[in-house]
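Database export, one record per block. Field names are fixed; values are copied verbatim from the stored entry.
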Amino acid sequence: MTSDRALEAERDAIVAALTPVVDGLAATFGPMCEVVLHDYRDPETSVVALAGSVTGRAVGGAMSEIGLRIVARGDEARDELNYLTRTGTGRTVKSSTMVLRDSTGTVFGALCVNLDVTAVSEAHTLLGALAGLGAAPAELPVTTFGDDIDSVVDVILDTHRHEPWGALDRAGRLALFRSLDERGVFAVRRAIEQVAARLGISRASAYSYLSQARATTSTTPGGPA
């Protein structure tokens, strides 16, 4: 059995080996490309190498909503390739997120490639309009990219709060905590305190709702054992 120390050394070696690849990929795809290497062992400062500037992040920054979702899925996470999203500034980004695993199959990071395809998308829309193919493009989901993990968590909370906490019944409250958990919010240190403060409840209540939400998920038919 591989020791914890040996696994940590293996993960460090994988990160070190991929670090120079980041610059090479960004140089290959050009100025509209950003390549980010994440080490999820520290979600709040997961960006360990970066080349290019599409999402405005820097080394030492936090993971995005996509990274939180991968962390929440754990070793069941899979590569997410060629998906389109939109930044908070309105840029259209085509991305691929490739998970990193150690020799035991444990997910501990990701290599991400982000291409700013805003100009291509605008040209496609213009050409479609000129050709009389004027169907409106599908609305893309907005993904929060930021160096501050608290701001990422805040945006996720904002998108999930359709009703005031006091207006939710028990099922609605558990559904909210279950959804936040599935999106990886509680993988972040201090997240439970942040969520409790935003909802206007005690930390103890937040822990209780999270525990109940996880318990009901695990006992739901078809859910994890």
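Remark 1: The two ends are 25 Å apart (CA to CA).
Remark 2: Residues 96 and 166 are 39 Å apart (CA to CA).
End of record.
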